Amino acid sequence: MLKSLDIQDLKSRLYQAIDNRVRIITAGLNLRELRNVLRGDPPEEKPNPRYKVHTTSFLFHIRPRYYEKASTIFTHTFRLGFFSTFFFFVEAITGIILMIYYSPVPSEAYQSILNLESNVPYGKLLRDIHRLGAEAMVIFVFLHMMRTFLTGSYKKERSFTWFTGVLLLGVTLFLSFFGYLLPWDQLAYWAVTIGTGMAEAAPLFGREANLLLRGGPDIGANGLLRAYLLHVVLLPAVAVLLISIHYYKVSREHGISLPAKYEEGDIPAEEKKNARQRIDFIPDLLTHEVFLTSLGIFALIVSIIIFGYSAPLENVANPQVTPLDTKAPWYFWWLQGLLKLGDKTLMGVILPTIIAGLLIAIPYIDRNPHRSLYKRPVAVGIGILSILVLVVLSYMGTPLYGIETPAATRIVQDLAPEEGVGPLRKIPFDQLQPGTYEVTGTVPRDLCPNLDFGCPALTSVFAEYSRRITRAINDPALPKIQRLPNGQAFLIIEDWQTDLRKVTFRILWDDPDSQQRKTFEKHIFIHRLRGDE
Amino acid sequence: MSRVQLEVFFGTLFVLLSGGILLWYGLNEPKRMAEYELHQRAKSIEVGAELYDINCKGCHGPQGEGVAGLWPPLNDRHFFTNRLTEVGWSGTLEDYIISTVSGGRLVSTRPDRYPGQGRPVMPAWAERYGGPLRDDQIRNIAAFILNWADTAPDRSTQMAEMAGPPTGTDIKKALPEGDPTRGEGLANTKGCVVCHISAPTGPAWLATPQQPGIATRAEAILTDPNYTGNATSAVEYLHESIVLPNAYIVPGFQAGVMPANYGDTLTDQELADILAYLLTLK
Question: Domain A66-317+328-397 maps to which CATH number in 1.10.287.1080, 1.20.810.10, 3.40.50.880, 1.10.1670.10?
Answer without folding.
Answer: 1.20.810.10
